[in-house]
Amino acid sequence: MTILWRNSKCRAGMIMLAAFILIAVFAAVIAPYGPRVSDFGASEGPSGAHWLGTTARGEDVFSQLVYGARTSLIVGLVAGVLSTLIAMAVGLTAGYLRGVVDEVLSFFINLGLVVPVLPLMVVLAGYAPVKGLGLIIVVITVTGWAYGARIKRAQIITLRTRDYITAAKFAGDSTARIIAFEIVPNMISLIVVGFMGAALGAIGAEAGLAFLGLGDPQTVSWGTMLNQASLGGALTTGQWAWLVAPGLVLALLITSFTLMNFGIDALSNPHLRED
Amino acid sequence: MALLEVRDLSVTYSPRDADTVRAVDGVSFEVHDGEFVGLLGESGCGKSTLGNAVLRLLDKPAAITGGTITFDGKDITSTSEDDLRSLRWVDLSTVFQSSMNSLNPVITIRSQFADTFEAHDNDVDVDDRAGELLEMVSLDRSVLGRFPHELSGGMKQRVALALALALEPRFVLLDEPTTGLDVVVQRDILDRLRVLQARLGFAVLFISHDLGTVMELADRVMVMYAGELVEDQPAAEMVTRHLHPYSAGLLGSYADPRDEIVEVEFIPGRPPDLSQSHAGCLFQPRCPVAVDRCRTVHPDLLPAGRGQVRCLLVEESVGDRAVLDKAAALRHRDQVFAAGPSALADADPVLVVEGISKIYRTRRGLTTTVTTAVDDVSFALRPGQVTALVGQSGSGKTTIARMLTGVERPTAGSIRFKDAPVDHLRRRALRKYRRHVQLVFQDPFSALNPTRTVAYALSRPLRNHLGLSGAEARARAGELLETVGLSPAAQYLDKLPHQLSGGQRQRVVIARALAPEPEVVIADEPISMLDVSIRAEIIALLDALVRDRGIAMLYITHDLLSARLLADEVMVLNEGVMVERGPTLQVIGEAKDPYTRKLLAAIPRPGASGTPVVARGDTEMGAESA
User: Fold this and answer.
1) Can you give the residue range of the structural domain that contains B394?
2) How far apart are CA B232 and CA B118, in angstroms?
3) In this structure, which of A52, A62, B231, B589 has its CB flanked by the most CB atoms within 10 Å?
4) Count of structural domains, chain A
5) Is the CB of B441 less than 8 angstroms away from the CB of A162?
6) Chain A contacts to B (CB-CB under 8 A)
7) pLDDT at A43 over 70
8) Where are the beta strands (DSSP E) in B488-626?
């Protein structure tokens, strides 16, 4: 942790992410109005009462922006965790057992890698019988685990031949225990990096799907805001803040993840540590 | 004027979250034109740091904090990188420990030479000159067209040496240039080096912890301990009339395995922590002859004998040798390990191997290559006895170990553990069998999981095989640590591997192998990665454990001295065939097989009369490059 904090890029990323988390948690306190309250004049420009103006339906843009942080972070966290878990299960099993199991699992990993992700997501999201945030998370998870699985498989193949793994076998440890207690602690930085990548992808994918109109219109997210801004003619009415604000915070959130990754790289590779 | 002059050089490591360490402290020495100087010391004594400082290759957090380096009359202590570039390789070149990996894998050997010539605007015919250089290190010219991965480790190291000599430098730094190579190959390369050095007349600073080799090769030997030079003598003097107790300890690790009685000494203890300041002599805590004054007075490097020595006792004594005679007498109490009488009592064998063979078939396209790794080998392991398995890299030693542990099955023949056929065991039975057969690994750095404590590593076999509870396992782990000489155990239980030294780690590895109370232990070159000065200690430990606990041990090695010290019986393996087998002294004393003889010749014998080093360079690399 101190290593992460010491890296100046990583520190900036951690502070930014912490700010986003605080905003999401205390959204009800920070936002001046509810995200769906449409009591205001439609398509107003920025003013003292509405810092970023109002939507075409008369909702407060700033309040939507604050509540939208919740959606992005929840999708990032849940989809990131889920796809990391799938990637670990598949990658570690394939890499450790090798042989036929590896052949079969590698086939699915490769399948996951070559299938064009965006059309698949669009099809899944568009034709699924249910709508809502859960669906989006499932779609993102299903399409996003393969890359992480491939990396973890490669890593475990180099780790499994180490002498201490042989020693654990001779100590009578079971395969599951060897993977969980001997191998996983040695690839923790890789797993964290994988999680960050997956979470980042999930946040972007959620925004993308919502922007395309495939999200749940009832959920307030930065993607739906962009979608509605575009449909509501934000540019024609000169409401630049409605359009720019969600894009900007999305970029900032993604930047914070990327900055943190610098520090995590340093954790796994001491050569990258900046003195 | 000397070619290289180092005056009061100090190097300090200042890591961000640890205390600063004075790795090199006020070192002064000279290397003259054409001189071959050896620099000796244990791991962590600062010898590689000193070498890198001389080449100005230090990286953060290390930095030169005092003193000067003068090369050919020019002060290079603070020359800019740009100015250094014209000097490097032309005048100062180097072969590193890992220089096998310093060749660029994606270009041919010829291109590597071409790059070197081009970088220094050397307008020569590359094929001609590079071919000449390769022949100099006894490689064929055809190697020029090959890529690094097509060459063996020894050949790559020769190429690295040829590259270092490409621009006819006046000074070459060799930092353990043959570590990691087969002993016989090592020997050939070093002999070749000595011949070349005599012919081309470059100066060499040869860094190594292998004192025997250094003594044989060098004109002058400097011994380094805890960042300081403690002795500097002509090589011949060092062998017979060394003065510092530390040099004596290092020299004690050598003996001729063919002698009737073989004894080796070791230096107990560890080097001091250089992040603390010490008042007296740095070697005092490990010194067998230290007196009270050594605790408080730090000795200077003063002229003595035909060189210089840093020792209060030598300073004060009348006859130079008086100190060492006393030291030798004291050392004999507890720091000597002698090969015991080999009692070949005919206990019932626990593990019997009958005519095993292993054939590997590799298919590439339509052609199938058949490799016979092991061919019709039979032997038996008996309780309380050590059987050494000696052979070159690739001779099938490891394959035999893998078959004995059930990792692989023999193609033909049978292996029986008591009444159980090892070659037919399946999963569950195999796991039970492994309780009785344990491994000691070669590399103590990869044999322990870096993220797990010593207590965890030791408790796993105890809990799995002996069914102990957590608390019982911890108590037993402590007992095991005491058994292998890590005491008090409480101090080690919660340490992570990186907090231990190489020797300590190897002790933990041995303790782990002993944990399930096995009847057979297979030790795969357990000392080859350790410093020479602590090898004897580990051998003594293994010996005591085998005899006390009645363990049958298969000791895999290519080091005949350690085999002589430890083993009751020796088997020599060559290309999968057992070429010699018998009681240790008989096999080593009357070696018949050419490979066994080569191994014997490769053992350095500092001070042995006769056989001049250069004459032994006749075992050329024909076999290897063919």
Assistant:
1) 383-398+426-602
2) 39
3) B231
4) 1
5) no
6) 2, 6, 162-164, 166-173, 181-182, 185-186, 275
7) yes
8) 520-524, 552-557, 569-574, 577-583
